[in-house]
Amino acid sequence: RSNYHRPQKSASCATTTLARHLTTFKAPLVFEENKRPTTTDMAEAEGKPTISVWTIAGEAELRILTAIIDKELSEPYSLYTYRYFLQGWPELTLVAKTEDGTIVGGIMCRLSRHKSGTNRGYIGMLAVAETYRRMGIGGMLVTAAAKKMDDKGADEVVLETEVSNTGALKLYQSLGFVRDKYLNKYYLGGQDAVRLKLWLPRSMSDTQ
Q1: CA dist 18 to 102, 104, 109, 139, Å?
Q2: How many CB atoms lie within 10 A of CB 127?
Q3: What b-and-e string marks burial along 11-22, b requiring 16 or more CB atoms within 10 Å of the CB?
């Protein structure tokens, strides 16, 4: 149970998987708050709302996002933690919105230099409101965030999730993440975690 390390030769395959996921959407997924978005191709004819992904805009949206995270995730987070991500890397906090502007999910990330010498992107929180699950929104948010981190020079993206969270594991592995390390009693409640990693050899931008 020491780790789940996979050889780095998996990197190109993993990035290809995520790049392929990017191409399933018609338009760029991330927009500045003062620009008109081009929405994703989630057909209302199939009973699904049209969802777009935006860079978060201000305190009001942060309050809505943190309420979703607090409700949907088992690990508690303080206001300090939220502000740490938002103030340090405001462009890496993204929200998913319906056509009427309702926020239904979001992702908070950071990008920093790791002790190994790599530029490491980190997904701190990902949450989607319960009534909007199973619509591909989580995958949209992860894809958009990974693309932004890649554009900013990230070499890899990592995150932790509970071993028992099979839904999250399935989502991330479908996007090309691989199991990198087993973390015993990682969470405050004593739950074990798995660290997942996606390598980004700076080729995602070339797939568009």
Answers
A1: 27, 23, 17, 10
A2: 23
A3: beebbeebbebb
Positions of E strands within 56-118:
93-97, 103-113
Tens-place pLDDT, residues 108-141: 999 999 888 889 999 999 999 999 999 999 999 9
Helices 79-88 and 58-72 pack at an angle, to 10 degrees, of 130
**Number of residues written out for the chain:** 208
Query: 182 and 1 in contact (C-beta within 8 Å)?
Result: yes
Lowest-confidence segment of 87-91, 92-96, 180-184 by average pLDDT:
180-184
Q: Maximum CA pair distance of the chain? A: 49
Per-residue model confidence (pLDDT) at position 184: 87
Q: What is the model's pTM?
A: 0.77
Contact by Cβ (8 Å): 104, 128: yes
Residue 187 neighbours by CB under 8 Å, 6+ apart: 74, 75, 162, 193
Q: What DSSP element (H or E) covers 124?
A: strand 119-128
Both tokens assigned to 99: 């056509």
Which residues are registered as beta bridge partners of 160? 195
Report helix, strand or coil for 156. Answer: strand
- pLDDT of 171 reads 93
Q: Which of 56, 51, 109 is nearest to 85 (CA)?
A: 109
